[in-house]
């Protein structure tokens, strides 16, 4: 049982790490845009992993 719990913890951690890396890359891409577009771009890529995960779970539950 402990191994299952640890395994689930590692999966969740790695999913968050992938999300954070993708978000960071998107933020770097936003920096290349003109100021007017930068603000809108950053607004789209600043969602926390917890918020993303909650929204994702809600969408999966609706299917």
Q: What is the straight-line distance between the termini?
A: 30 Å
Overall average residue pLDDT: 84
Contiguous low-pLDDT stretches (5 residues minimum) are 1-6
How many extended strands?
Answer: 0
Oligomer: single chain
Helices and strands, in order, run as HHH
Form type:
elongated
Q: Helicity, in percent?
A: over 70%
Number of folding domains?
1
If you compute it from the alpha carbons, what radius of gyration comes out, rounded to the nearest whole angstrom?
Answer: 15 Å
DSSP strand (E) fraction? under 5%
Number of helices: 3
Which structural class should the secondary elements be placed in? mainly alpha
What can you see in these coordinates?
The structure is a single chain. With 63 residues, the protein is an all-alpha fold. It has one domain. Helix content is 84%, strand content 0%. The protein is built from three helices and no strands. It has helices spanning 2-30, 35-44, 49-62. The two termini are 30 Å apart.
